[in-house]
Every structure is written in structure tokens, then in C-alpha cells.
Specification:
single chain, alpha+beta, five-stranded antiparallel beta sheet, 5 helices
Length: 207
Amino acid sequence: MKKIITIGIALLLFLNHTYSQTAGQVAATSAAIAGITYVAIKTSQKELSKEISQFRSKEYIIDEIIGDVGEKVVTFETESLASDDSGGIISVAFNCDEVDERGLLLAFFGDHRNQYGVASTAYAFRYIPLEKAQNLLTRITQVKDDNKKYMSDESDVNNVYIQFEDIKFVLYRDNGENIRVFWNGFEVIWEKTAYNRTRRRLDKWFK
């Protein structure tokens, strides 16, 4: 009898542990995809890019960065730094003195591959506080300069990989300098012109 009771308790503990793991995995999956917006209606990339940079970015800022303000009146500033109408990265500068937050908002825009491998047009935002954003852009530029010869020796063969938190960057040359960015199911090209404009205008905007 004692043996049967012991086996029963062990089985209950195992089932409880398994359920907890499954619940945690479901919660993590839901949280991971919660910030991604899929575009159901077919629209032009240029119109969608404008919508993201001018309107959806502000929605993200008030919901996710500023948060609930109750009866208070809160002022904040945004400036679109660089946009890629064909899909890639849209950069927006943001400042709000009242919540002491300022920095760079990156909108990843284009094909997104979900956990089942299905690709659909989508967008999502990744906020980087100012000092971290400036350090990241400086680092990317420095790595590009330091490895210019290596990447030029074998175009589209020699790659340089760096990482910032959950964002991964692969630098390479293929008819010019390229930055391929991987984040949260997105794989996009950060065009040279858009990248340089983001770096230059971010510093200028916060002077």
C-alpha cells in the first residue's frame, strides 16, 4: 500500500511539473508574438511604411513606453529619421521628458516568419534607449571599418557577425556594404543610406 501511495504522489508531481512547463511555454510564445502586427489587407509598401513611421510608431510609444497617464497631460516628440519603403528598418527618434525616456525606435517591416515557418507581411517595434542606441550605431560603424578589407576580399562570402541583446547583425559586401538584421522572426536588410541617415540624424536630433 505504501508503495502504491508513493508511486501515486510521484506521478502527481510529474504531471504537475509537466503542466507547469507547458503553461510556461504557451505564455512565452504568446508574449513573443504579441508585439507583431500582421498586415491582412493588401496595401502598397510605400503607404504601409508611411503608416508605420507616422502613426503606428506613436501608438507604440504611448502604449508601451509612456504607458497609462490617467488624468495627466503628457507631451512627447518624435521624428522619423530614415525609412525603407520596400521593407527593412524604419527608424524613429523619440523623447519624453515627463517619463524620462528617449532613444531610438526601430520598426522591423517586411516578411515575418512565424513559428510554423509561414511568412506574411508584418511589422513590429524594438525600442533602444538613447545611450545604448548611440553606442550600438558607433559599434556597427567601427566593425564595418575594421573589417572592410576582409569583406572586400570575398564579396558575399566573407561575413562579420555581431549581436546586441536580442538583435543579430551580419555585415557583408554584395554590390556595396550590407547589414542584414535578424530579430524576432524578421530578417531584413538595413540599407546603407537608411543606416547612415539614422546614425547621423539621431545624434543631431538630440544635441
